[in-house]
Write a structure and sequence with these properties.
Strand order of the largest sheet: 1-2-3-6-5-4
Radius of gyration: 31 Å
Number of helices: 8
Largest sheet: 6 strands, antiparallel, barrel
CATH topology of the largest domain: Thrombin, subunit H
CATH class of the largest domain: Mainly Beta
Number of strands: 22
Strand content: 25-35%
Shape: globular
Low-confidence stretches: 4-60, 387-405
Distance between the termini: 95 Å
CATH superfamily of the largest domain: Trypsin-like serine proteases
Length: about 400
């Protein structure tokens, strides 16, 4: 029998040989890795994976970020009774271009969302949801359905005020918040009727505030100043509420980016509150008017116009006999402040001028050839010929688009 010292080199050689063979095997397997399905068969997964431990109890305020909710369920329970689904029937006359068939009547039914704002059945939605509708039906969260009538609408802001004919039924109005206090990063929740799936709840944050008409391609004449959110909104969410964590409505969902995901926009509720008394009293928004055509200040203008930056609204045109013309404002002036509000982008000015009030004396600060000039301008009523509805441009899609079935 060999002695222990002679067996040691033999054992060591055998060990090194096996290790070398194992390394070569791993290298060959590494040269051609096997593709493993993401989801393993259920029985194999059950054999390979031990049971998961029970989930810890939900604690208020224990979300993934400091101050974030662990669940939106209490908020949903508190507010969903205020959110309604809207079905608008629109009649269209189809004419045969060849003249072989008589005109045919066709009816389409668009879907949208709204939210109650008063116990008497008043509710807010987007104007494009009910545009041209001959019959409007509103369905509550509990399944009850009622006919609704249009009290007033503002195509330019894309807001409509309806009233449900609830015949004394008890209704739950939503609480309106202060959208001016909404900040980027705030948690928000949307409730709506996307693709007919009523009471769908999505959540996200406020991605930006004060989005101008130029930034979101709303087209000239629209007011901009929108809230941007990454809470998922889709066709049918139009007119639904954007809510903060206090359960208050801070916006009315209105549009999404056509070519993006998680880029939606809402009308700040404070803008809707501004026109709400007028919609109740007159059935439309009664706007004031400055009487200019605002334009963008570009980098190329700064040197020869002696401007410090591109902030402000360039006065491209002054309408004859308008408030601006009477005050002395001229083409080429750059309006920098209006009634104490800084004008960073020209699309801010139309809303400020139109919501200030007929007869209001507005303080206007501008630069003329680089020199500061101030005027007091008494605003007139916006002429009817200027009050034209403007829908979003190519980059934006109302939700749903006007006339969508």
């Amino acid at each position: 029998m060999p002695s222990a010292p002679r067996l040691l080199p033999l054992a060591l050689a055998l060990t090194l040989g096996l290790s070398s063979a194992s390394c070569r095997k791993l290298q060959r397997e590494g040269d051609a890795p096997r593709l493993v399905p993401i989801t393993a068969p259920r029985d194999a997964a059950a054999r390979a994976t031990p049971p998961a431990p029970p989930a810890p109890p939900v604690v208020a305020g224990s979300g993934p970020l400091p101050g974030s909710p662990s669940s939106f369920a209490p908020l949903v329970r508190a507010v969903r009774g205020s959110v309604v689904s809207i079905f608008a029937n629109t009649r269209q006359v189809v004419v045969d271009p060849r003249g072989w068939m008589p005109p045919q009547e066709r009816y389409s039914r668009s879907k949208g969302t709204g939210f109650l704002i008063a116990e008497n059945g008043e509710l807010l939605t987007n104007n494009h949801v009910i545009e041209g509708a001959e019959f409007i039906q509103v369905q509550l969260d509990d399944g009850r359905s009622f006919e609704a009538s249009v009290i007033g609408r503002d195509p330019r802001l894309d807001v409509a005020l309806l009233r449900v004919k609830a015949n004394g039924a008890r209704l739950q109005p939503a609480r309106l918040g202060d959208s001016d206090r909404t900040e980027v990063g705030d948690w928000v929740m949307a409730i709506g009727n996307p693709y007919g799936l009523s009471q769908t709840v999505t959540a996200g944050i406020v991605s930006a505030t004060g989005r101008t008409g130029r930034e979101v391609d709303l087209g000239e004449g629209n007011f901009g100043n929108l809230l941007q959110t990454d809470a998922s909104i889709n066709p049918g969410n139009s007119g639904g509420p954007l809510l903060n964590l206090a359960g208050e409505v801070v916006g009315i969902n209105v549009a999404v980016r056509r070519d993006a995901q998680g880029v939606g926009f809402a009308i700040p509720i404070n803008m809707a509150r501004t026109v709400l008394p007028q919609l109740r009293q007159y059935g439309r928004a009664v706007r004031s008017w400055l009487g200019i055509t605002p334009g963008e200040v570009t980098e190329q203008m700064l040197e020869f116009m002696r401007l410090p930056d591109t902030h402000g609204a360039l006065v491209r045109e002054v309408v004859d006999a308008s408030p601006a013309a009477r005050a002395g404002i001229r083409p080429g002036d750059v309006i920098r402040r209006f009634d104490g509000h800084d004008i960073v982008d020209p699309t801010q000015l139309p809303w400020l001028a139109s919501s200030a009030g007929v007869g209001h004396r507005a303080h206007v600060e501008l630069l003329r050839e680089g020199q500061p000039v101030s005027y007091e301008v008494t605003l007139d009523a916006l002429p009817d010929r200027v009050a034209l509805p403007v829908y979003p441009g190519q980059g934006m899609v109302p939700i749903p688009p006007p006339g969508a079935p």
